[in-house]
Design a protein that fits this description.
Blueprint lengths: L2 E9 H8 L5 E4 L7 E7 L15 H6 L9 E15 L15 H8 L4 E17 L7 E9 L2 E3 L3 H12 L3
Parallel strand pairs: 1-3
Antiparallel strand pairs: 1-6, 2-5, 3-4, 4-5, 5-7
Length: about 170
């Protein structure tokens, strides 16, 4: 099994949605340069007064705003990028059932930019680890290598069906 230090910085509520199989995509303004990465929780967004307005399921988001840890955070998941598709920002609402954010949050984030929809296969690490990361806006490195050993959070048959549904969304 390989080891990596690369991580993607993401809101903890979103990581938990990915890790619990509630979400299979990330919507970005940019393509990814990595095929696999650890999912590293961030916390600065949690201090925003209206943060819960960004999520469809406010109770889920509220219960998952903050990760375990203080100086270092618990990393429980990693992801592989199965595919990246591009869609005009005007068509992004048809993907609402594949993520936990509100339509307004996605619209505000994208503006008029074309959406890059990352279809992710997420795995729960066999051994979650408390890790620190260096600074980085999109990607960063954690302070020690992590073995990519884990099980997919969504079984193969179900994931393949989800991926097909995402690819066929207009």
């Amino acid at each position: 099994m390989s080891e990596i230090t690369k991580c993607l910085n993401e809101w903890n509520a979103t990581l938990e949605a990915l890790g619990q199989g509630k979400q299979t995509i990330l919507i970005r303004k940019y393509r990814t340069t990595l095929n696999e990465f650890l999912l590293y929780p961030t916390v600065s967004y949690a201090n925003k007064e209206d943060i819960l307005d960004s999520f469809q399921d406010k109770e889920f988001a509220k219960n998952n705003l903050l990760p375990n840890g203080d100086d270092a955070y618990e990393v429980k998941y990693y992801a592989t990028v199965e595919e990246v598709i591009e869609k005009p920002s005007t068509r992004i609402g048809s993907f609402n059932k594949f993520h936990i954010w509100t339509r307004d949050h996605v619209k505000d984030y994208l503006g008029r930019k074309e959406a890059k929809i990352w279809i992710l296969r997420v795995y729960k690490l066999d051994k979650p680890q408390m890790l620190k990361r260096n600074m980085g806006m999109r990607y960063a490195n954690v302070d020690k290598p992590v073995k990519l050993e884990g099980k997919p959070v969504i079984p193969d048959v179900e994931f393949n069906k989800l991926k097909e549904d995402i690819l066929n969304t207009k």
